[in-house]
Amino acid sequence: MLIYWSIIGLALMLDIACSARIGRSYELFALTLFFMYITVISAIRLNVGTDYGIYENYFSSIRDLGSENLTVERGFTFFIKTLISMGFTDRAFFVLSSILINGAVYYLIKKNIDSLYWGLAAFLYICGGFFFNSMNLVRQFMAIALGIFAFMAYCKKRVFTCLMFLLAAFLFHSSAVVLLLILGINILLNSKKKYSYILLLFILAVVVSFSGVSPFINRVAALNPHWAYYVGNKNTVFFTERNSSAVFKLIIPTLIVLLGVRKDYEMDKEAELKVRHNFLYSISLSGSLCYIILQIMGYGIQPVYRLGLYFFPFFIVYVCYVVGKLKGTRKTVCKLAIILYFILLTYVTVFLWNGSGVMPYESIFSLEP
User: How many CA atoms lie within 13 A of 181 on its CB side?
Assistant: First the structure.
């Protein structure tokens, strides 16, 4: 637990330093050191994460028996085979996956967020649960990292590069196809009826949430060989059980997105014309809407929550945009509410409930017993 508290503490210190405007070069140095630290913590972990043993088994099975009988995507098995052919052990898998995942988020923050909010972004990455989940759902988070690079390329109008990264993400985890939702939502956001579409999306999410989403999830999941087992197994409720307490995870994220949309609406109304935001802002809002809409539709249902994780990096960017629009006391109160909320969320879901099985932390050097 001390390791995790140290990470949270460093993220808050980074936020204080960036808020004080100590100089971009110093802020970049601090941000780089922070991500190097958490990457090392992730890379040297041992038996941390519910699925940690599964990845060890994947590695040993591919090494000893081949990948023919494994129901995992070819990109992932190719990656493992490459490591094996180079003489590496499964430790290389955990090291390289940690570098890829944390490196992608570092790149996203560095390139697309004002340095004033780097600390806040780093804090959200940790206490929003993304970092802790990345030590459990490794294969999916490698796909998420590739998705980040895909949309970074898309924002630079490099369509072919974007498609290649999306394909790579899909070959690591077929659920990455959900990332295409960003493109669809982004088209709606660039129409004249932008706010009407956003309202309709929220109404649709609430209706689906109350009407029940489990039967639809079961049908879709049955098409995926990796999830078909859960659908056909009567002893599991992975696709049907709803944790009602998960509704509390929606409160602040939903309010932040609604606040951002309201600020956009006010700006548009005052200008009497559509305010032209940069392309990245539009993508971050699209990703945030995908994240919130999915969470509302299937709050407390594990598969929907996991699909929503593909969009959380864009939510981090959007939160920083929204906070940046506020002035004076409103900005201070908003930041304080975000920090307190996500610390409480982390304490309950990670430290008390041991979400993702990351407690206690152990490393190959036994940093913490």
Answer: 22
125 to 106, 134, 193, 346, 354: CA distances (angstroms): 10, 10, 32, 11, 18
Please state the length of the chain.
369
| Strand-pair partners of 363 | 45
Q: CA 263, 269, 273: angle at the middle one, nearest 5?
A: 115
Instruction: State the CB neighbour count (10 A cutoff) for residue 92.
Output: 17
Q: How many other C-beta atoms are found inside a 10 Å radius of the C-beta of residue 124?
A: 26
Q: What is the pLDDT tens value at each position of the chain, 369 positions in all?
A: 789 999 999 999 999 999 999 999 999 999 999 999 999 999 999 999 999 999 999 999 888 887 666 778 889 999 999 999 999 999 999 999 999 999 999 999 999 999 999 999 999 999 999 999 999 999 999 999 999 999 999 988 899 999 999 999 999 999 999 999 999 999 988 888 889 999 999 999 888 887 766 665 655 555 565 665 555 555 455 555 666 667 788 888 999 999 999 988 887 776 654 444 567 888 999 999 999 999 888 777 788 888 999 999 999 999 999 999 999 899 999 999 999 999 999 999 999 988 888 999 999 986 443
Burial class (CB in 10 A: 0-12, 13-18, 19+), 365: exposed
Tokens of 30: 């601090």
Residue 246 corresponds to which amino acid? A
DSSP 115-146: GGGHHHHHHHHHHTSHHHHHTTSHHHHHHHHH
> What's the pTM value of the predicted model, to 2 decimals?
0.91
Neighbours of 212 (CB within 10 A): 13
Tokens (6 digits) for 55: 């990845």
